Amino acid sequence: MAAELHPRSGKLIGLSNSNRTAQRNQPIQEFNHGLVLSREPLRDRDVFTVRIDKKVNSWSGSIEIGVTALDPATLDFPSSATGLKGGSWIVSGYSVLRDGRSILEEYGRDLDQLGEGDLVGIQRDTQGNLHLWVNGEDCGVAATGLPPRLWAVIDLYGKCTQITVVSSEPPPSDQETCEDSEEQAEAAAPVSQEVSALPRSQSRPDKFPNSLGTENGFGEQDLSDFVNSAILSAYSNSVSEPMDVPRCSQGSSPPEGLGASLTVATNLGSVSPVGGVMTNDALLFHEKCGTLIKLSNNNKTAERRRPLDEFNNGVVMTNRPLRDNEMFEIRIDKLVDKWSGSIEIGVTTHNPNNLDYPATMTNLRSGTIMMSGSGILTNGKGTRREYCEFSLDELQEGDHIGLMRKSNGALHFYINGIDQGVAATQTPTIVYGVVDLYGMAVKVTIVHNHNHSDRLRRNNAIMRALSPDVGRSRTALHLSTDSDVPERLLFHSNCGQKAAIINDGKTALRPHATDDFNHGVVLSSRPLRSNEVFQVRIDKMVDKWAGSIEIGVTTHNPAYLQLPSTMTNLRSGTWMMTGNGVMHNGTTILDEYGHNLDRLKAGDTVGVVRKDDGSLHFFVNGVAQGPAAWNVPPNVYAVVDLYGQAAQATIMDDLADLPPLPDDVSEGNNQLSPVSPCSVMSATDLRFHHLHGNNAVITNGGRTALRQNCRSEFNDAIVISNRCLRDGELFEIVIQKMVDRWSGSIEAGVTAIRPEDLEFPNTMTDIDYDTWMLSGTAIMQDGNTMRNNYGCDLDSLTTGSRIGMMRSASGDLHYYINGVDQGVACSGLPPEVFAVIDLYGQCVQVSITSSSGPLDNSLSTSNNTEKSFPIQSPVPGVAHRFHSKHGKNILVQNDGCQAIRAGGFSHGIVFSMKELKSDELFEVKIDQVDDQWSGSLHIGLTTLQPSDIPCTTTGLSASLLELRSKVTWLVTGSEVRRNGILQKQNYGCSLDRLGVGNRVGVKRCSDDTMHILIDGEDMGPAATAVAKNVYAVLDLYGKITSISIVSSTVLEETESTKAPSLSSDSCSEEEEEEPTPCEMESSLAVKTMEFLENHGKNILLSNQNFTATRVSSYNQGLLVTSQPLPRQHLFQVQIDRLNPTWTSSLSLGVIGNCPERFNFPSTACCLKRSTWLVQRDSVFHNSLKICENYGPNLDTCPEGTLLGILVDGNNCLHLYVNGIDQGLAAQDIPNPCFPLVDLYGQCEQVTIITNHVQAVGAEPVDTRCQADMEKADMVDGIKESVCWTPPPEVNPMKTCEYQALCTRFKDLLTLPDGYFNEDAKLNLCYCESCHKLRGDEAYYKRGEPPRDYALPFGWCRFALRINPRSDMANTFKKWHIAYHGCSVGTLRTTLDQGELVSGSLSIFSVAPTKVDVQNEYTETEENSAPEREAVKVKLSPTMRYSGLEAFAPKVQFRDPRSHRCHQAQVAFQVCVHPGSYKVGSQSLGIVEALDPRFSNSEIEWITKEKGGTLLYGLLIRVE
Predict the structure, then answer these.
(1) Phi and psi of 341, rounded to 5°?
(2) For the chain, which terminus, N or C, has the lower number of CB atoms within 10 Å?
C-alpha cells in the first residue's frame, strides 16, 4: 500500500493528493501548527521519505522529522513536533530530541539547510535504532532502544510549508551488516553514485530554485533573504559536500552522544571519526585568554571571574582562524545587572598565541573589527554608529550572537539567527573570532548547533515583535473605518516591571511611584488605526523625581516585547515625545517640538495619532503640536511611559470631547484647553502658514519653524506668515538653532504673493516678482540686488538674535535687529504683504516672539535713527575703512572705502583702519582690473600696526610677500604663506581668477584660525595659531587696480546692554528684561558656583562645598553644581588626589536636567537623558559615543591638572585642559545646564577653582604675548611651540613621570651640559598625555619646498645647543626635519662632530662602502682619512622607521630612583638641507606599512653630503 499521511493533523495543515501532500496554511503569518503523521505505523527497515516542495524565508528553522509512539487517532496535536511527549524522537536541525529534551547535540546533516526538492526520511531498523536519511544517504544512528510500534512524524515548521510523501520502503541496498570497510563500500556504491550524480545546482546547502517565480514561493524581494538564510546556519561541516563514504547503519551502538557515521570535511581534507564533529578542528576558545577568564566545558564555555568587582579583562578568542562561510556563534549564559555596556564580539587578525591581551578588545588599534552596542568599531574607532536595530547591550540570557566571514570578504553578524547585514567589507582572510565579556556579560558558551529549538522559538518571537502582522490573519489586519463597533483601546496586560493595569485595562499606574522612577512602560492592546487618536489623562503625579510622562508609538507587539526600563532605551521601531523633544529609536530628531511634557500637571491630557499619510502628531490638552515624524509604518501600538513624576494615567476614549483632527496644522488650530498650563494666549494671531517649503516643518501650534535634515539639506525651507501684515505691525522671530555646516544664513523679507498662489522655490531670492528680501547685507527686489550694505548683516547673527520686519503706513520696509530699527530698507511696498523667512544655510530653527504685533504709532512711519544710514550715503552702512598708511602707489578715496593703485604693478599694500575682532569679516569687492599685468590680489592678516609705519614712502615693501617686519599671514593665488614662507598649497579657489565684481574677505576666527571667503563662500582655515591683535592687509598687486569695501563692523551697543563674550565683543540684547547686567550675573555665578548637596552616595563635600572627595569604592561619585552654568563662563576643577589602585579616572560634562531631586546612578555613563560627557578621549551624549580622539585622555591627567568646561554663545560645549581650549566637543547644549563631574576610578578628590577663572570677555593670561611669537621661535611647527603649552603654574611637563624617567636616563649618559640648550622650555615630552595636552597633530610640514614629517610620539626630546656659526633663521625656515636612530655608544662622537657625517661610527645607521680587501667588505677605521670614508647616513621623516631596533639598539639600565630595570633607545632629530639627500625605499626588507603617511618606498632618506645635516634634538625612549 502506498504511504500516506494520517487525516488528523495540525490545525493549519491542509492535505491533498490522496493524503500524500501536506501544506501549512498562512505560511507568512504562522510558523508552527504544521504537524503530520504517517497513516500507518512504520515497519522495521522501511524508510518513510518525504520531498520538500516549498519553503518561505519569513522564518528561521525548517522541517523536523522523527517518530512517535502516540497514536494519531487520539493525539492532541501540539504546536510543534518538539512538544510531543510520551515516547517521541525528533530530529531538529542538527539535534536529536526525545520528548522535547536534547539527547544528541551534533548529528547528521542540518535539516534547516535542505532546499526545495531535497528528500528526507526516517527509519527504525530491526535492532530498534533510529536512522535519518537525507537524499538517499544514511546519517547514522540517531537514537537507540526505540519501541516497535511507531508512527513517522513530519513537522512543517518555520520555512518549510509543503511536503509530499515519496515512499515507505526499505533502502535500495542491504547495509544492516558491515563487517569491514570494503564490504561496506561495495554495499554503498549505488547510493554513492546516486548522490554523486546530483548536479551541482542541487548540492547542499547551496540549493536554490531554478526560477524565482511566485510558483516557487519566491518574489523579487526574497532572493537576498534566501541567500542570507542559506548561509546563516552554514559552518565548517555544513558548507562542505559530504564524500561518498558508506555508513554502517547497524551493529554496535555508537558512543554516547555521538553518531556512528563517518563524515569527511572536504574543505580541510580531514576525516572525523564521529558523526558531524571534527575532533581536531572544532571551534573552541583558545587556552590563552584575558586575566579574569575561566574556561570550562572542554573550552567551549568562558566565564569572567569576580563579575561584581571587575568589568573588563574578559577577552577570549577562538583556538583557530575562522573558515570562509563558517558560523562562529555563542550563547549568553549569564549577565549581571551592575555595569553599563555588555558583550562585544568580532574578529581579529592577531594570533592569540602572540597577543598581549588588552583590558578590552576595543583598545586594540590594529587588525580588529568589533560589534559593540549597535555599532561597528574598526581598530577601536567607530566606523558605523548604527549598524543594526539590535543592540548587544540589550540582549538577555539565552540570546545567541554569531558572526561569519563570507568568501567574498564580507563580515556579517547574526543575532538570534537574524542576519544583520554587511558590517565590513574586505575582511582579512585569516581572522580569529573574539568575544569580550565586558560589563554586564559574564558567561558565554560556543554553540555548535546553530539551529537549536530554543533559539528558533526566541527568534520567531522576536520577529513577531518586530512585525505586528506576524501571526495574525489578513482579515484581522484590515481595520475598517466604517466599523459600527470599533474595538476599544485599552492597555495591554504585559507592562513594565513597576507598572500595573487596573480599571478593566483603561488605567495604568506605578503603585510605588515614590520608590522607583522608571520601569513604567505600558502599550495599547491593539495597533492604532490611521487617524485614530490615542489620548490619556494624567491622574496622579509625585513631586520626587525629575522628568514626567512620555508618549509615542512603536512597531513592537506588546505580547512579545521585553519591556525596557524606559521606552527611549529601545533602539528600533519607536517614536516618543519626551520633554519638548521627539526621539526616534533613542536618538533625538526634534529638539524644540512642542509644549514641554515635564511641566504638565494632574488633569492634563496628552495624545498621539498616526495619520493616513504616515505622519505622526502629538496633542497636549487637545492642542495639536504639529507633525513630529514622517514615514511611520501602519499598525503601530501606542506607548505611554509613566516616568519620573507621572504615576497614573487613564485612556480617554470619549472621542466626542476631542476637537476634530485637522488635515494639517493651520492658523485656526490654536485654541488651548482651559486646563492647559500653556493656555495664556499670545498677544498676536500671527503664525506661520501651513503651506511651506519641502524641507520646512511647522510645529508648536504654528509658532515654530525648522528645517529638517539640517546637515544634509541647506535650502527649500521657506515659511510665510498666515496672513498679511498690517501697517505698523512687527513680525519678529528669534533664531533658536544654527549649524556650522553651511555658508550663508537666514534671509527675511516680505512678498505680495499669497501663500496659496506661491510655488515655493529652493530659496526666496529665486522669485522674480512682488518680493523684497534681505540677504546678508543686500536688499533684493524680485531676485535682483537693489542696494548693498544695509545697516545689518543677517549672516552675522547667532542663536538668540531677533529679526523683525515691519511695513510702515507710508509703504516703507523696516528691519529690526534685537528690537533696534535698522532704518528704511526700501520704499513703495504694496499695502498687503506677507512676512517671509527663508531658513537657509546655517539657520535651522526660528520661533515667532511675543513682540510680534502692532508697534507704537511713532514707529509706523519711521525716520532714520542713529543706527540707520542715509540712502544717499555713497556706501550706506559701511563702518570698515582703509588705514591712512598704505603703499606709495595707493590712493584712498570715497571716505576711506575705496583703494586705487595709481601706477605700476606693485606698492599697493593697504590695511584695515582698526584691528579685527574675533569672527569679524573684512570684505572687499574688486572694481577694476588691468589685464596687462600678471598676478592678482593678496589678502591676509598681520600683527604690524599701520600707525608704526614710518611716514616716508619707503616705509612699506613693494609687495605683501616681502612684508616681514611683523608676523603676516597671507594668501596669494592658491598658496598660504607666513612671512613669505610657504605653508600650504592648493588652498581654496585661486585669487588669480578674480575679476570685476568678485568679493573676497578675510577674518580671524575665535579658534585662532584665518579664513578666506570668496563671494561669501568660506574656503576653510588657511592658517592656524593666528595672533589675536591683527589687521586685515591687502595688496593690490598685478592686474587688480581698484577695490572697495563692502563689509561693516559689528554695531556697537551701549554699555548698559552690551553682553560680554569670550569670542565676541558684542552680542544682542537679551529678550527678557533683567535688572542686573551680564557682568553682575557672571560675577555672581563665580561666587555661587559650588557643588550641590545632592550627589553620589560616596561623596563627601568640604571647603564650603568647593571640594569633593570620594571616600570609598571607585564609583558612586557623581557631582553637579548648585547653580546652572552661565553661557561663556569657564567652570574649572583641579585634580587634587589620584589613587593608582583603580583604572580610569574623572569624567566631565553638563546635564540639562535640574539636579535638585536627581537620583544619581553609579557612574555618569549610566545617565541617558540630556547629558553630554567627556570621558577618556571621547565625547558621549546620553551614553552614546558621538566623538572620538577628542583632546587628551582624561585618564592620563596627573594631579594638579585643571579641567574646565564652557558653553559658548552658540550653545557649543568646550573642554579646557590647563586653560587650553580643546575645541568644540558637542553642539545644541540646552539652557540652563549644570556642570557634571564624575569622581571615578583613580580620581578621588577635586576642587572648584575660582581664582583662575578669568572674567568673561577678558584676555587669557599671557596668551597675547605668546601668540605673537615668530614661527622661527617655535619648536616643530605651530602647535609644538611653547605658546601652546599650559601656563607655567599648571604645566603638565612638571608632573610628567615619563619625562622625568627619560631625564634620569640622560643623566646616566654623562653627556656634557654644554651640548644641550639651556632653555628647558624647548625640551618636549611626546608621551600620549603630554602631546594631547598640547594639542599636537601627528604630522607637520617644514622647509622649502615643504615636506611632511611625523612628530616622535612616545619619545622625549632634549633640545641641543645649535652651532652659533650656523644660519639659524634659514635653517629653521628652509630645511627639512628628519630622524636618525643610533646606538648609545656613538652619541658622544656624533655630538662632538655636530652633524651626522663620516666618523659617527654608528654601525646601525651608517652603511660603509665596499673596500676591496681580499674580496671582503670591511668597515673604515676610526682614524682613517676622511676622503677614504664614503659613508651614507640613513634618515627618515618618521621615528616609526628610525626608531626600529636595527637603527636604535636597546640598552638596559636601572633607574636610580625606583631601582627598576628599563630598556632605552636614543636617536637624533636633525635638520636636513633640501637637495642634500635622496629619498629611497626601506632597506630592512619589511613588508607591512610602517607609517600611514609615508609609503615604504619613500621612508628612507640617504645623504653623504658634509654640512647637509644639523643636530637639533636628542630623542630618548624608555620602555
Answers:
(1) 75, 160
(2) N
